[in-house]
C-alpha cells in the first residue's frame, strides 16, 4: 500500500532563513508525489508535483522539492522563508492514474519575524 | 475561472440525521474527489468520480455515499450521522484523473451534536 510520512509535526524557522519540510514515501511502482499547503479555514492549495524527470521540482511561491529515489524522500524547501509561509503543509502520493491522494499527517510551519 | 465551490460552508446536525454536501468543480473539470479532514485522522480519501462513474472509494462505512451528475457537479451523503463524522469535508477537482494537481474547495465544516 502507498504511504507517506512527515516525521515533524512542526518546523520553526526565522524569517529569511532557508526552510525544509520533510517527507518520505513508500510506494510500489513509480511515485507520483505532491505538496499542498493549507492556510487557516481554507482548503488545500497545490504547490508542486513530481511525476517524472528532473529530481528538483520548482513550484509556486518560491518553493521547490527534491526527489530522492534512493532515500525515498521528497523534501520541500525554500531558500528564504517569509512570515506569510506559516501554514500547514501536506505531502501526498497518488495511486497510479487516479486522483486518489494518500496524505501525510501534515507539518505545521511557523516562520518567526 | 471560478474555483471549486462547496455548499453549505457550515452545517450543524444531530446524531442520527442525514446530510448532503454539494460540490461544483471548476468549469471543464471532469474528475471530482472527496476527502474528510479531522484532527485525529488527518486527511482521508472518501471517493473519486470521473464522468459520473465512481473510480475509487476509501475505507469508510456504507453510510457514506456519493454521486456525480452529468455536469460534473457532485454530492456526498452521510446517513445516520455519528459524533465522529464531525469534520471538514473537502472536495477537489481536476480536468483529468491522475498525475495532475487537484484544485480544492474551501470545504464544508460539519458538526454533529
Could you characterize what this model shows?
The complex is a heterodimer of chains A (about 110) and B (about 110). Chain A is mostly beta strands and about 110 residues long. Chain A is about 0% helix and about 50% strand. Chain A has strands at about 5, 10-15, 20, 25, 30-40, 45-50, 55-60, 65-70, 75-80, 85-95, 100-105, 105-110. In chain A, strands 2, 5, 6, 10, 11 and 12 form a six-stranded mixed sheet that branches. In chain A, strands 3-9-8-7 form a four-stranded antiparallel sheet, with no helix packed on it. Chain A has a two-stranded antiparallel sheet with strand order 1-4. In chain A, strand 7 (about 55-60) and strand 8 form a beta hairpin. The mean pLDDT of chain A is about 95. With about 110 residues, chain B is an all-beta fold. In chain B, about 0% of the residues lie in helices and about 55% in strands. In chain B, strands 2, 4, 5, 6, 9, 10 and 11 form a seven-stranded mixed sheet that branches. In chain B, strands 1-3-8-7 form a four-stranded antiparallel sheet, with no helix packed on it. Chain B is globular, with a radius of gyration of 13 Å. The mean pLDDT of chain B is about 95. Classes of the chains: A mainly beta (about 110), B mainly beta (about 110). The interface of A and B includes residues 32, 43 and 106 of A.
CA-based shape of chain B: globular
Distance between the termini of chain B: 37 Å
Question: Main beta sheet of chain A: strand number and arrangement?
Answer: 6 strands, mixed
Silhouette of chain A: globular
Radius of gyration of chain A equals: 13 Å
Rg from Cα of chain B: 13 Å
| Low-pLDDT runs of chain B | none
Structural class of chain A: mainly beta
- Can you write the helix and strand succession of chain A as a string? EEEEEEEEEEEE
Amino acid at each position: 500500500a502507498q504511504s507517506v510520512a512527515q516525521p515533524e509535526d512542526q518546523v520553526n524557522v526565522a524569517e529569511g532563513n532557508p526552510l525544509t519540510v520533510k517527507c518520505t514515501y513508500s510506494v510500489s511502482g513509480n511515485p507520483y508525489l505532491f505538496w499542498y499547503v493549507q492556510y487557516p479555514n481554507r482548503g488545500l492549495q497545490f504547490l508542486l508535483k513530481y511525476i517524472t524527470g528532473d529530481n528538483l521540482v520548482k513550484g509556486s511561491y518560491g518553493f521547490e522539492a527534491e526527489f530522492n529515489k534512493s532515500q525515498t524522500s521528497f523534501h520541500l524547501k525554500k531558500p528564504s522563508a517569509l512570515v506569510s509561509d506559516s501554514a500547514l503543509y501536506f505531502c501526498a502520493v497518488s495511486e497510479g492514474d487516479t486522483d486518489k491522494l494518500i496524505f501525510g499527517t501534515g507539518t505545521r510551519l511557523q516562520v518567526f519575524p | 475561472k471560478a474555483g471549486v465551490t462547496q455548499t453549505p460552508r457550515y452545517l450543524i446536525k444531530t446524531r442520527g440525521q442525514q446530510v448532503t454536501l454539494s460540490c461544483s468543480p471548476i468549469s471543464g473539470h471532469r474528475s471530482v474527489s472527496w476527502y474528510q479532514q479531522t484532527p485525529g485522522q488527518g486527511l482521508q480519501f472518501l471517493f473519486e468520480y470521473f464522468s459520473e462513474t465512481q473510480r475509487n472509494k476509501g475505507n469508510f462505512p456504507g453510510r457514506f455515499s456519493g454521486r456525480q451528475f452529468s455536469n460534473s457537479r457532485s454530492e456526498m451523503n452521510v446517513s445516520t450521522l455519528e459524533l465522529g463524522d464531525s469534520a471538514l469535508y473537502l472536495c477537489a477537482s481536476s480536468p483529468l484523473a491522475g498525475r495532475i494537481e487537484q484544485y480544492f474547495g474551501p470545504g464544508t465544516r460539519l458538526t454533529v451534536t
